[in-house]
User: Which sequence fits this backbone?
């Protein structure tokens, strides 16, 4: 979409592990509430961190939409393949089972997310998803239309996906968040496509809010465009992968995303002939409903076999 005034190589050279502030330990540990036996077997002694001692890291979904039906009015997203490839490598390095889907229709995106929610997460630390597409505030483009972001994330709520209750649900969204235009949306666009078996089944006693333990990392703040380079990929995903590569197993997740915010805010700037798109900046946005800290520490090998 744009050409950067600075090369990716020059940015990478300045963002070596020694150039980014080393993480400190700013958290004061609190005594865990309740009795000690309330913690799951294998849970860390650190009460402020999520239990990441399950056998598997978890499932990570990448939805990478590049080509769009002419009826959507959306252009090809050149450079998104580089984003998808980097994400696939980085999250595999963190131990995730990565599944990538390119050019997904609205029905396919809905099906992918429902099937992911129905995956057996009982032995997993968490769930993750990256959505790379065009968008406006609150909506994401499939290749043939638009979907509400709530439709895609709803299947993972605590009242719909019991296997992920108390576990992090991590969503990374690379898309514009401009205000909705005067589009005439198909009435199907706002329907979740979920059959009755996926409707909320509330338990008699709800121990945690259904919205708990979600994190949304957006490439930009509401009302703004999200910038992407036709060769190197989007600014946000480039920065995210740089930070994960250097600190993925050492730094807490929200700390990493704060580093991403700083890199995008200070190191990237658009370079275009058009005056209204030249020297533009971008600010990613973190929306967290996490209740503990997330550390992707390496899994210890099982020596029992």
Assistant:
């Amino acid at each position: 979409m744009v050409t950067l005034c600075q090369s990716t190589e020059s940015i990478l050279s300045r963002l070596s592990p020694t150039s980014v502030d080393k993480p400190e330990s700013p958290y004061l540990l609190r005594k865990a509430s309740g009795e000690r036996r309330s913690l799951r077997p294998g849970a860390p002694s650190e009460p402020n961190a999520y239990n990441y001692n399950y056998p598997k890291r978890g499932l990570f979904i990448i939805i990478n939409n590049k080509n769009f039906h002419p009826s959507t009015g959306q252009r090809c997203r050149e450079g998104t393949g580089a984003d998808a490839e980097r994400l696939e490598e980085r999250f595999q390095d963190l131990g995730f089972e990565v599944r990538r889907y390119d050019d997904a229709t609205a029905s396919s995106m809905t099906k992918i997310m429902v099937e992911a929610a129905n995956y057996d997460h009982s032995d997993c630390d968490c769930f993750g998803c990256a959505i790379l597409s065009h968008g406006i505030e609150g909506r994401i483009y499939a290749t043939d239309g638009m979907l509400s972001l709530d439709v895609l994330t709803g299947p993972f709520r605590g009242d719909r996906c019991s296997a992920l209750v108390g576990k992090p649900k991590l969503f990374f969204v690379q898309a514009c968040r401009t205000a909705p235009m005067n589009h005439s949306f198909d009435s199907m666009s706002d329907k979740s496509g979920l059959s009755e078996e996926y409707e909320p089944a509330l338990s008699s006693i709800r121990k945690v809010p259904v919205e708990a333990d979600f994190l949304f990392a957006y490439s930009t703040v509401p009302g703004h465009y999200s910038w992407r380079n036709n060769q190197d990929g989007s600014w946000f995903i480039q920065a995210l992968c740089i930070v994960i590569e250097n600190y993925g197993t050492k730094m807490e997740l929200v700390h990493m995303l704060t580093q991403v915010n700083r890199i995008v805010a200070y190191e990237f700037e658009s370079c275009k002939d058009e005056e209204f798109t030249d020297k533009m900046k971008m600010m990613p946005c973190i929306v967290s409903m996490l209740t503990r800290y997330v550390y992707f520490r390496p899994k210890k090998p099982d020596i029992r076999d």
About this structure: The chain is about 20% helix and 20% strand. Residues 45-179+208-261+283-288 form a domain with the Rossmann fold fold (CATH 3.40.50.1460).
